[in-house]
Amino acid sequence: MAQARPLGVxxxxxxxxxxxxAIDFWLRSRxxxxxxxxxxxxxxxxxxxxxxxxxxxxxxxxxxxRTPLWTDGRADEFPLVAxxxxxxxxxxxxxxxxxxPAGEVLSFWxxxxxxxxxxxxxxxxxxxxxxxxxxxxxxxxxxxNALATVAARAGLELVERHGHTARIEQAADAAGxxxxxxxFWNYVDLKVRARHAWRLEVELTSDELVLxxxxxxxxxxxxxxxxxxxxxxxxxxxxxPMARGCLSCDQTACFRHRxxxxxxxxxxxxxxxxxxxxxxxRYLAEHLAGADRMQPAPVRLTFWRAGPAAGWHxxxxxxxxxPWWASLRRAMWQRLxxxxxxxxxxxxxxxxxWLALAFAARLKPEHTQLVIxxxxxxxxxxxxxxxxxxxxxxxxxxxxxxxxxxxxxxxxRWPDDATLRDFRADPALVxxxxxxxxxxxxxxxPHAAVAAHLAAMAPQAETLRLDWVLPAVRAADAARDxxxxxxxxxxxxxxxxxxxxxxxxxxWPCRLRVLGSPSDDAQLWRGIDSVAxxxxxxxxxxxxxxxxxxxxxxxxxxxxxxxxxxxxxVVASSACGLAGLPGVREVAAGDVEGLRAALRNAxxxxxxxxxxxxx
Length: 615
Known about the structure:
Strand order of the largest sheet: 12-11-13-14-15-16
Radius of gyration: 30 Å
Number of domains: 3
Largest sheet: 6 strands, parallel
Number of strands: 22
């Protein structure tokens, strides 16, 4: 925001601000704001338009305007620039995806409402009396400038507009048609109107503020470059004096001067974690040891398994922030629905949402780079926490849209298996994840299938493929018994490939050991003589000829990694993400014949190896 000046009046030479002038301005501004509020209450000139409508979502783009987020201001004023970007994050939610009917007025302040700290606004940059001063909700003029410019480009009428008193150094605009439009609560407003219905879209990328106007109707009148230049020159922005920075000028005796904590120009990095994996723990320790870390609190409930999760907190930085209430709420909720088919996955998503909201509340404006667990990504996208930041995603799973596509394909092959259709995510959350992945700068994952899919889905992102970490286990006992023992490294679920495995083993004398729980279908393993279920207890690898997992969906193949570490050959679908690891034979998910051939080849190769060792 910035103090407005009457049009046509030249800006005076800069003088050190006086406290008496500030008091006078405060009194006059409060009087004008009160009078404006009374007038708008009696006879409103505009109304607030709701976002989220889609009537014009596919309409042609009439105009677009881009402006940089981080290049205005000196390096030592970075705290105020970061605050400005935070204020734009909050304000974006009020303006994005709104649709204004024909002939109606869009008022900046009526649409945004009064900016306050309780709404998430922070100290930003404001031009006042020729100085750049720290002010709550400062920096919103970048949004008003962009709105006035894109509206002028689209041929909309600027019903009300005011100019700045000065210009910020290094805030050069490459486009010569930029329109200057300042705002100050609530009487210095920006109002826009058109003869046709139109839609406003506001986006914050990692380094730009982007505004677009869509409409199906033609422009009210053709907008020429001359008209745009005339609109931009009315505010006199090109002839304005240069503003002085409150944090960088030499007037330390000025009553407005205040010292802010020094922050590096590049900002800070925050790591937002959910689940522990040794691959991601190694990556963070090697590359991001000094970053601010946020992770779940170590809540202990009986259904939690001891092991790596506890190690996560020992390895974490001592000053890691852990939201205890969100962690406890999530743990209790997941325990409640852990054994309910179709609701367990929904409870996991609920817990991720609560954790994401708790983390977002702890982010600071100077957090310009985020390293995020993939499960938190769509929730942070929905609340706008990713806006204006560089995103690195720790990708452990396929996107929800791809998971559902693969489950739907498997359901067509096995239509009688309800477990393939027991849960689908909220479509809005699926779209949010897709939008978030389209803006990430880097993808980090050990999973080959996830890396390949995201590389195609998000070509703008750099992909870093991590090495899988094999656990330290003793070698499994040599398997020489006949018939061979085949170990299924999962519970007997259709998404894990149980039905394909049952079909592949028909007519083959073998023994089957299921490491997890049995299927609800008592006829699943019909035709197989010996079937045992371990319920994830004991050592299921002893005597195994081969470990198999022909899954349609598998993001954490820990049982397969344990088998490889123990020296047991593995047959797995490409969905398990182990491509390139020695000892793994890959098959396509759903390929029964290919699975049968791979299992027999693995058993025969093991027999030949045992014969060679005996001789």
